[in-house]
UniProtKB/TrEMBL annotation:
Signal peptide: none
GO process annotations (BP): response to amino acid
Entry-linked SMART domains: HTH_ASNC (SM00344)
Keyword terms of this UniProt record: DNA-binding, Transcription, Transcription regulation
Full protein name: DNA-binding Lrp family transcriptional regulator
Protein's organism: Geodermatophilus tzadiensis
Keyword Cytoplasm belongs to the record: no
Domain HTH asnC-type: start-end pairs: 8-69
Length: 165
């Protein structure tokens, strides 16, 4: 199997747009819709999956559907050279959805979910107690105005937006 691409081409972007519109579309339906051979669609999807260029399916599940109605962002300051250990400890907490390394005053930005305010308190106390964590600061997410999206970038990559030229 060929190596995964470093960057999606216009055909990959069109394929992913079609999958975004109908995630349950069959390879045959995608090939007909895009005017590509079935084997081409199948090979491209396999290459994208093998290369880790597609997010896991569970990223589409909303935390609210599991009872986690409260969302927050926790910035974490870590002792010097302790980022890897703290990040691994955070990954072990089910309520931690994302951990991103930052430049600036905080070292990590941690997206968490909680059932309610008491659950968030418990979780932030748990984070603060991790070895290597010096300080945390928590901000509640009140409303999301733009959900995580790739559609506009896929449209640009597929050739639908001339601003990329």
């Amino acid at each position: 199997m060929p190596a995964p691409p470093d960057r999606l081409d216009a055909t990959d972007a069109r394929l992913l747009q079609a999958l975004g519109a109908d995630p349950r579309a069959t390879v045959m339906a995608l090939s007909q819709q895009l005017g590509l051979a079935r084997n081409t669609v199948q090979a491209r999807l396999a290459r994208l999956e093998a290369g880790g260029l597609l997010a896991p399916f569970d990223s589409r599940v909303r935390p609210e559907a599991l009872g986690y109605r409260l969302s927050a962002y926790v910035t974490v300051q870590v002792v010097q050279r302790g980022l890897e250990e703290v990040a691994a400890a955070l990954a072990a907490l089910p309520e931690v959805l994302e951990v991103t390394a930052l430049s600036g005053a905080a070292d990590l930005l941690v997206r968490v979910v909680a059932v309610d305010a008491d659950d968030l308190w418990r979780l932030t106390e748990q984070v603060l107690a991790l070895p290597g964590v010096q300080r945390t600061d928590t901000a509640l997410a009140l409303r999301r105005y733009v959900d995580h999206r790739m559609g506009p970038l896929l449209e640009r990559a597929a050739g639908g937006d001339r601003a990329a030229d």
